[in-house]
Amino acid sequence: MDPVTALRRIAFLLERTQAPTYRVKAFRTAAAIVAEMADGEVEKRVAAGSLESVRGIGPKTAQVVREALDGRLPDYLRRLEEEGAGGPLAEGGERLRAELRGDCHLHSDWSDGGSPIGEMGLTAAELGHEWAVLTDHSPRLTVANGLSPERLREQLAVVAEANKRWAPFRLLTGIECDILDDGSLDQEDELLDVLDVVVVSVHSKLRMDADSMTRRMVAAVRNPYANILGHCTGRLVTGGRGRRPESAFDADEVFAACAESGTAVEINSRPERLDPPRRLLRRAVDAGVLFSLDTDAHAPGQLDWQVYGCARAEECGVPAERVVTTWTAKELLAWTRHGRTPARVSGSG
After folding, report:
1. Tell me: the pLDDT tens digits for 198-242?
2. Which CATH superfamily is domain 94-345 in?
3. Is the pLDDT of residue 346 over 60?
4. Helix crossing, 59-69 with 75-82: angle to 10°?
5. In CATH, what number does 3-82 get?
6. Tally of CB atoms within 10 A around 329
7. Distance between CA atoms of 6 and 317, rounded to whole angstroms?
8. What is the pLDDT of residue 338?
């Protein structure tokens, strides 16, 4: 194992198990620094004892580099593996997780994610995904550094260039688009039309009265550019942001609109969200909707969180053939671009 791979693996395992951000950052920063060094430089610094003089490399990360160069599994990584950091995260979900081909909801440091597009794409491919969708936030969500139309156009060019290097893995273009108060979407139609996948989510006025929220969500999922309804209740059940109750809305009316329009309901796998709750997930199954089983990852290690959603989906009877993240990229794009429902699931509702 080379030093960069060892440092990235440690950062991944720490993120995966929700370790403090500062610990993750130390190893990911060191990995980036070592990766940028000229050929032979890291070996020379180790031999000279000057590795720790490089800004961003501390005693622990330097030790990982030295042990990797010695041909050993670094002790820090070995301890993480032995303590189960790479083991199962949830009970159940393995069957559905094995059928997944991609992830329709992830963020990069272009908005509020913590890592570059390249790191997110590379990790998704390493996890066995055939494809993933980059869905940074839309302009109105300024707290999350939402993408203006100009920045989104720049990102499209970056993704196109990256895909030339990553084949056969493919990073699809997308956005997590804010649902505005009246149900309209927070991005230019011209841009929404060229994106591969559009996730629509409520991020503001979450305590809106139930009738207004229902009208807002129904209008959004019926929008011809909407493909996936993200974290529908907006709840937070744990984590650093505290707890937040579910938004009030008529779930049956919203799910019926999703089924009618072909907009998928997201099964959000983030541990602090796990949205929708089981009772609503079962009602969505009964409504005949499609589902998108996503991580909403904001860091590479979080891309392995899909099993949380898989476990809940299996428990609630979600049919695998109605989960769009089990489809090939070709099937997914046929759905998002040409009527949304591929022939393989036509009539399955």
Report:
1. 999 999 999 999 999 999 999 999 999 999 999 999 999 987 778
2. Metal-dependent hydrolases (3.20.20.140)
3. no
4. 100
5. 1.10.150
6. 18
7. 39
8. 64
